[in-house]
Amino acid sequence: MKYLRLAILLALGSSLFFSCNKEDDCIETIWYQDADGDGLGNPSNTQSACTQPDGYVSNATDTDDTSGNSATIATYGDALAAQVAAGDGNGIDNSFRISGLVINETSNTYFAVNGVHPINSGNYTAYYPKSIVEASLETDEIVNAWSFDASTLGRDVDMEALCFAENTSKLYIGDEYNFIYELDLSSGQVTREWNLADIGISTSTDRGVEALTYLNGYFYAGIQEERRIYQLDLHLDATDPGDADYQKVESLSSFAVNNSPSGLFAGQNGTLYMVAFGGGNVNQNIYNYTTSGTLSCTFALPSTVDIQQADGIYIDSNEEYAYIADSQGALNGLYSVYRIPWSASDCQ
Questions:
Q1: Which residues contact 131 (CB under 8 A, 6 or more apart)?
Q2: Exposure pattern of 80-116 as b/e (b: 16+ CB <10 Å)?
Q3: Domain ranges (residues) in the chain
């Protein structure tokens, strides 16, 4: 019996030893407490762990973790829910699943497009009209709405990305069928279109232009399937419809990115801010790329913002706030747009 007890103790000891060794295989990281939920950590309050603990972040730049900016986080989406209730979606989908986001700071409104496929549809051509909605940032109420489908544009549409160019009288729309449209907001008509097949861009259905922005005379389009960003010349200076360049598109350069782009915004410093599709914490970050394709920083969103699928980004001209669109927020009982505190110095 004595030897049996000894054998059992040796077996238990061996099991514990190897179990501990397996635990020790992880690489611990230092995490910083984010008590005020602004996405910035307190360098004086740390915890070492293999995985990120609740209430802790990897950033260590918060000088005052007791009075952060979490109160300035704002959410939007009531207007978009009202748009669906008013008939958008033809009853196929009961959530406005936003893709693309741009702000008109003069009128204090935001633009969003209901650009995701009906959840009850098994194919990509049973579309309801794609609605672009303008809503107030003060009251979150509908100001304008425009709808497009095969009957209005002559082809199936899957509008996903939005941006302005030199002014806010015309809105530029990226389509996952690899078209870019120019929408005249005064008339509500699509006045120009560019077919990216002309420059050799061809993707699977639902994998084309997902992100779009404008910088220094050129457009930058994020192609979801390729995980690539293209610099495009759309020849906006050719204003005569009879001009050969009126709807001509040229690709000037391109570069690969780490994740599939789902939103782009051109910063005042001449770089590109991107949100992306992906698993894990991909949706909780903003990625900053130079126009030559160098990833210069990754900005973590505040821990109080639970993005399900980042699908658009806009940063205001004072660089105080970043607006993030969430295409899956409404489906999960959350929000469609988040406004979060922003400082360009946080992304260096």
A1: 83, 88, 96, 113, 114, 145, 146, 147, 148
A2: bbbbbeeebbeeebebbbbbbbbbbeeeebbbbbbbb
A3: 2-57, 70-346
First to last CA, the chain: 67
d(Cα 174, Cα 221) in Å, to the nearest integer?
A: 8
pLDDT of res. 100: 94
List, in order, residues 6 or more apart from 44 with CB less than 8 Å away.
none
Query: Phi/psi at 37 (nearest 5 deg)?
Result: 70, 25
Q: Which residue has the tokens 């979150």?
A: 140
Paired sense of beta strands 295-300 and 285-289, if any: antiparallel
| Tens-place pLDDT, residues 122-148 | 666 666 777 899 999 999 999 999 988
Dihedral, CA of residue 227, residue 231, residue 236 and residue 238, to nearest 10: -120
Encoded tokens for 160? 């996903």
pLDDT, tens digit, 9 for 90 and up, residues 188-217: 999 999 999 999 999 988 899 999 999 999
Which band of pLDDT confidence, cut at 50, 70 and 90, is reported for residue 105? very high
195 - beta bridge partners? Answer: 179
CA distance 93 to 31: 41
**Can you tell me the distance from the alpha carbon of 308 to that of 319, in angstroms, rounded to the nearest whole number?**
24
- All residues at 6 or more sequence positions from 115 whose CB lies less than 8 Å from its CB, including other chains: 97, 98, 99, 100, 130, 158, 159, 160, 176, 327
pLDDT digits (tens, 9 = 90+) for 18-50: 443 444 567 788 877 876 665 667 887 888 888
Q: How many C-beta atoms lie closer than 10 Å to residue 195's C-beta?
A: 16
Q: For the residues of 184-248, what is the DSSP string, one character each? A: ETTTTEEEEEEEGGGGT----TT-SEEEEEEETTEEEEEETTTTEEEEEE--TT---TTSTTTT-
* CATH classification for the domain delimited by 70-346, as one of 2.120.10.30, 3.40.50.720, 3.90.550.10, 3.40.50.2300: 2.120.10.30
Residue listed under structure tokens 């999960």? 332
Q: What is the largest CA-CA distance in the chain?
A: 100
Give pTM, 2 decimals. Answer: 0.80
